[in-house]
Amino acid sequence: MNPVTPVENPVDEEAARLHRAKVWGGAERRLWDTSVDGTVGGRLRELADWAQAAGHAEAPVDMYGNGLVEELERRVAEELGLPAAVFFPTGTMAQQVALRCWAGRTGSPVVALHPLAHPEVHEGGALGAVSGLRTVHPTDAPRLPTAEEVRDLPEPFGTLMLELPLRDAGFVLPSWEELTEVVAAARERDAVVHFDGARLWECTTHLGRGLAEIAELADSVYVSFYKSLGGLSGAALAGPEDFVEEARVWRHRYGGLVAQNYPTAVSALRGLDVELPRLPSYVAHARVVADAVREALAEAGTGWSRIHPETPHTHQFQVWLPYDPDVLTAAALAQTEDTGTAFFRRWFAPGAGGPPGVAVTELTVSGAGLQWTAEDVKEAVRDFLARVEG
């Protein structure tokens, strides 16, 4: 087998992206399904079939947030055990509004959060550019801040934002005791607490608590519908009724009062009915997969490698290898093209300050991966490494 070499300076990166999506989306066997897998027709038929079975097919379409959107808001508030919830078209907008509302109520534009949190890495500086907020960092360690770090932050802040789990650090979570302590430390500083819970749905196993008990710790919680629940898009912001009503006003001001959202609402309701009950099984099987990957890498003698966290906190975790990311991506793509199996997908260089000469990818376990045994995982890893090392 010839070693895989990366394609240098692709003429059309968009064409390359579409090719990857087609290959991985069309895999006969995969560890997880992504939001770009499948086709438009297939996704719409699946959604229509579920709507029919669940009794939503004859419901009237929504207009400016009524109907199915209201039903979705009630369902989210119920799942989180909070008084009210409001739908948003994007999580970025939901977080912007939440933090802006709290800034007005606390009188402080300062938000304490991790430097790897979503608003700092993936939102183009929107907190400052759009909402006039300023951020401070209790820690830059690749984990959530501790209670001591929150207490010792040298300047006042109005809101502590905790991303649960912290995705860019490896989908890491604190323990339940650590979480309650850091929330208490924020209260001692007279700050409110907001949870970036885009992936909160899958945190119950590691924290050992139900969604309502977790959400009760915070003053407000944002959740996503597409990251773990398989929805088309969309998010919700939950909290006290007066806070949610204020958030509705700001949603309109930010351009988020969309005329119709029924496809998104139906897909989110499906996620709550179908995917949410399954997430604990995904988390449990992710630990089986992580152990098998670790064993396969050790048996292959790849030298340095890393599974992070060693025991996954959720159904997602990182794998690190000492190769160029383009080489690893090409090998993953070739494996799927040749065998119809998608295991690893795209690899990346670590962010600023990361070690040179290594690459990282994320593995997820969803319903598609529950049939994979530990030996299946090892076989896929061995085949992948053979394509890398030739």
Structure characterization notes:
By secondary structure, this protein is α/β, with parallel strands linked by helices. It has 15 helices and twelve strands. It has helices at 13-25, 40-54, 68-80, 91-106, 118-121, 126-129, 147-152, 176-188, 204-207, 211-215, 241-253, 262-275, 279-300, 325-339, 374-389, and strands at 29-30, 84-88, 110-112, 134-136, 159-163, 192-197, 220-224, 235-239, 306-308, 316-321, 341-342, 359-364. The strands form three sheets. Strands 2-8-7-6-5-3-4 form a seven-stranded mixed beta sheet, with helices on both faces. The protein has a three-stranded antiparallel beta sheet with strand order 9-10-12, covered by helices on one side. α4 crosses α11 (241-253) and α13 (279-300) crosses α15 (374-389). It is globular and about 60 Å long. The N and C termini lie close together (5 Å). The model is unreliable at 1-8 (pLDDT under 50).
* N-to-C span: 5 Å
Largest sheet data: 7 strands, mixed
Radius of gyration: 22 Å
Strand content: 5-15%
Helical content class: 40-55%
Instruction: Report the total helices.
Output: 15
Strand order of the largest sheet: 2-8-7-6-5-3-4
CA-based shape: globular
Query: What is the residue-mean pLDDT, rounded to a whole number?
Result: 93
Write the layout of secondary structure elements.
Layout: H1 13-25, E1 29-30, H2 40-54, H3 68-80, E2 84-88, H4 91-106, E3 110-112, H5 118-121, H6 126-129, E4 134-136, H7 147-152, E5 159-163, H8 176-188, E6 192-197, H9 204-207, H10 211-215, E7 220-224, E8 235-239, H11 241-253, H12 262-275, H13 279-300, E9 306-308, E10 316-321, H14 325-339, E11 341-342, E12 359-364, H15 374-389
Parallel strand pairs: 1-11, 3-4, 3-5, 5-6, 6-7
Antiparallel strand pairs: 2-8, 7-8, 9-10, 10-12
Helix pairs in contact: 3-12, 4-11, 13-15, 14-15
